[in-house]
Amino acid sequence: MTYPTMSKTQPNPRFQYDDMTDSVALHHLANDYGANDVKYWMGRNHIISPQDVLYYADAYGDLEDAILLQSWDKRLPSRVHKALLDSGLDIYEAVNNHELKAERCPCCNADMWRFEIWQGGDYTSTDWVDEWGNVTDDFVEFVE
Q: Mind listing the pLDDT tens digit for each residue in 53-71?
């Protein structure tokens, strides 16, 4: 099943986010959200990829949400991004989440994406989000 994703229609057609330099992306962020806010988040080392932050800020209109989503797969449906933001999980600490592969749940026949959140040291927790935006730590797998 295909879903409308942000990569098919860029949030702001005037930008080519992948070709943009960090300084240009930071300039646009400062213009849109204020130089002090951008400086604050840069000072805390929370803006890792200015182009991705600008991409999500253009898509959702919120700088803090964009910072949380900057490492996430842009091909996910927007309702999945919004569910991740509303989940209460520390999605900023997610690892290996830039290119997620959809897996089919054998019980509900829904596309689901597995993601891991760093919990400290060498430990991560695994959670799932489905195509409807439900976030869970349960995934059923039939084994023959």
A: 999 999 999 999 999 999 9
